Amino acid sequence: MDTTVQYAKEMDQQxxxxxxxxxxxxxxxxxxxxxxxxxxxxxxxxxxLEKLVASWRERGIDGWTEGxxxxxxxxxxxxxxxxxxxxxxxxxVMVTGSITVNIHQMLSTxxxxxxxxxxxxxxxxxxxxxxxxxxxxxxxRGLDPAVSMRKVKSEDGYTLxxxxxxxxxxxxxxxxxxxxxxxxxxxxxxxxxxxxxxxxKGILVGFDLAHSIGSxxxxxxxxxxxxxxxxxYKYMNSGPGGTGGLYIHERHHHELPGLAGWFGSDKTKQxxxxxxxxxxxxxxxxxxxxxxxFSTAPLSGSVELFEEAGMDAVRSKSLALTKYLRDLIQAxxxxxxxxxxxxxxxxxxxxxxxxxxxxxxxxxxxxxxxNVVPDFRAPDIIRLAPISFYSSFEDVWEMVQRLxxxxxEETYKTFSNERNVVx
Length: 423
Prior knowledge:
Layout: H1 5-14, E1 31-32, H2 43-59, H3 74-85, E2 93-95, H4 99-110, E3 119-123, H5 128-140, H6 145-148, E4 149-152, H7 162-167, E5 173-179, H8 191-199, E6 204-208, E7 227-230, E8 245-248, H9 293-309, H10 311-333, E9 339-340, E10 353-356, H11 360-369, E11 372-373, E12 375-377, E13 381-384, H12 393-409
Parallel strand pairs: 1-11, 3-4, 3-5, 5-6, 6-7
Antiparallel strand pairs: 2-8, 7-8, 9-10, 10-13, 12-13
Helix pairs in contact: 1-12, 2-9, 3-9, 4-5, 10-12
């Protein structure tokens, strides 16, 4: 375990992704370790956004049908590119909506409760918005969430076991919906194995990929996952509030959208203005309203970078960065009560390292004062995410040195141990 700065510099010299750092706007002297919450802006994203602005300026309404990238089919063409990142067929992915809206769309489309099979299984560690969506969706169906929503329990408060998940797959369960990566601990679930377990019981499976897309390669189609939803503003660097995405396996494309809207129409018939809905073929049918193009355009530029780098290279560097980070944490600040709650195995962790500490909120504030951007999650988690495109090994080394200074000099004690309004 070499934790010297010389080793970090050597690793950076060998890094085949090192030139991508020049593609991003990096605040001067700042070490940005929060790309798992909001990715930084790339010059490519800026360019594709400006290109769309120019098309509006120059063409007005004709931008819908004219120019290099007509708006009418912009999301569909972009979706075919995103599909390759998640291991799906081009017609199985749609860049649209947000995570919560897309959860409602997928459940309203695929959840067909019967007296014998009306339960949706989630987990007790999931991000609150997913739980809110499931609860409200069940209420709209006249179902009581206290009865029809069950949560997989965690043994340690940070991770889930396959055994605990399988135990919840009883005969009355219709849908299992879990995160691919648990947002606090960074645990990566085995999507293929979980899907196999659920399908053996006749249960549909969906995953929230918010903390894995752009960090972990997926094979959604081959793994037979029924549906997935995600955002693009974390590892995919599409900008704040960037348009989200959904995947629905082609075997379900016969399903009418539960939430039908104009942009789910067959493109050739959309402007017929008929009151008879003719659904699009593929995932495009599950769009609802007119796409927000200004929130979509930056993703096009970001996807270019993924196409050039390749997901295998992104994942390989991510694993190397997070391994080096945890080695440094152990060597430099291991005596300061930090508990690494992220699973050790490469196949069981996503793109960030989560440290539990009783003084987590004030340590994060001290890190920000030291020009490091971490992420705090209540009640006691510090999340650190070195990003393959714009984090170097020397950045990771320097970040841990600043953390060590904060702990040795106890500068964190000058801050309150309460989170800010936005953590």
